[in-house]
Amino acid sequence: MSSRACPAAVLFDMDGTLVDTEDLWWDACVEVADGLGSPLGEADREALFGLSVEDAALHISGGPGAGAVESLLTDAFTRRLKNGVTMLPGAVALLEALHAAGIPAGLVSASPRPVVDLVLETVGGHRFRLSVAAGDSARNKPAPDPYLAAAARLGVDPAACVAIEDSPTGVASARSAGCAVIVVGPSGAGSGTSATSGVSGVSGVSGTNAVTAVPTLESVDLPLLRRLVSRAPL
């Protein structure tokens, strides 16, 4: 498979990228924090955006008892997911286009395995060649390990992959793994952060390991994916 023809794989973040779960996650955090007598504010919402359950538990607990808070967060989030999740605009069409083109799709999430498996039941696990959840690699996002693990399991070079993310934490993980990165949505762009410095719009895509901002997955197509992993000048 030539990198000029298509990416070796497209690796998707889950929450907020493929499925509309950000409000469910925030509600779960609020429930747990209220139960601990530590109510959250809007500044906490921004701080918790894109964090793994482990890091969110540390934020809410302040350190002591973080393990117990992690379990509470997972349970509260899972209860909400059982009511169903909604695929975000463009997700299904993009996955179908990748399947038709013979390009593997992988799911790379910072969420625990029970959460990932529950979402896969809704969106269709058959759409993905593999999934990587919290605990499936030595370190979670923002470390590169989850994306490196996904590429290794697929037998491909991370530099020939495109990662699709929505948070600075996820962008940092994918970019440090060597993937080209698409960041979806206005909050995901996070311009001015180290994770997304140099973010460009679709028309400004350039080079391997580029970071490109798009409003929704509806803006992502095969020509864009090919350009992102191509070393040829645009």
The strand line-up of the biggest sheet is 3-2-1-4-5-6
Q: Major sheet: size, sense and barrel closure?
A: 6 strands, parallel
Count, helices: 10
In one word, what is the shape? Answer: globular
Calculate the terminal CA-CA distance, rounded to whole Å: 20 Å
String of helices and strands: EHHHHHEHEHEHEHEH
Radius of gyration: 17 Å
State which percent range the strand residues make up.
5-15%
Mean pLDDT across every amino acid position: 87
Number of strands: 6
Give the helix proportion (percent range).
40-55%
Low-confidence stretches: 1-5, 187-199, 202-208
Structural class assignment: alpha/beta
What do you see in this structure?
The chain is α/β, with parallel strands linked by helices and 234 residues long. It has ten helices and six strands. The chain has helices at residues 22-35, 42-48, 53-61, 66-81, 91-101, 113-123, 145-154, 168-177, 186-189, 222-229, and strands at 9-12, 105-112, 130-134, 161-165, 180-184, 211-214. Strands 3-2-1-4-5-6 form a six-stranded parallel β-sheet. Helix 3 crosses helix 4. The longest helix has 16 residues, at 66-81.
Give a brief outline of the structure.
The chain has helices spanning 22-35, 42-48, 53-61, 66-81, 91-101, 113-123, 145-154, 168-177, 186-189, 222-229, and strands spanning 9-12, 105-112, 130-134, 161-165, 180-184, 211-214. The chain has 234 residues and is of the alpha/beta class. A 6-stranded parallel β-sheet has the order 3-2-1-4-5-6.
